[in-house]
Design a protein that fits this description.
Blueprint (H helix, E strand, L loop, with lengths): L2 H11 L10 H32 L5 H21 L13 H13 L3 H8 L2 H10 L9
């Protein structure tokens, strides 16, 4: 629950390009995406799929299947909220992109995550762009 508050503080307190849209509609869409990710993506994609698959000696396949189903709904919704452009909100890289990237990076550590993201070409293209950024480390 600290991530959003810390990210907004860092964006506002330090020099650098703005990571929050200047217009109220853009900020609302950014917050909507972050809320979607917090409420529906984090648990399903990170814990129910990636952690379950990577860290459990006997992973719960039913839990993973439910997580993949939830992840598919999240990715479909994310596509519907996406504004045309290189980033989730169009031409501006925002906190929504950074929030999504951290969650999706875990999800892509497993084959199921890679396979599912590949079905969403716009998001796969977005991912390919964000991982090429010097500020992003997927290690």
């Amino acid at each position: 629950f600290e991530t959003s508050a810390i990210a907004r503080y860092v964006d506002e307190a330090f020099d650098g390009p703005a990571l929050q849209p200047a217009d109220p509609r853009g900020r609302a869409r950014m917050n909507q995406i972050i809320s979607l990710l917090d409420a529906y993506a984090y648990r399903a994609m990170v814990w129910d799929v990636a952690v379950e698959r990577l860290e459990k000696a006997a992973p719960d396949e039913a839990l993973i299947a439910r997580g993949i189903s939830q992840a598919e709904t999240v990715l479909r919704t994310l596509v519907s909220l996406n504004i045309p452009g290189p980033w989730l909100l169009g031409d501006q890289l925002t906190l929504a992109d950074l929030h999504a990237a951290s969650i999706i990076s875990y999800f892509l550590k497993v084959a199921e995550g890679q396979k599912l993201l590949a079905r969403f070409s716009d998001l796969q293209d977005w991912w390919d762009r964000i991982v090429r950024r010097a500020s992003f480390s997927n290690g």
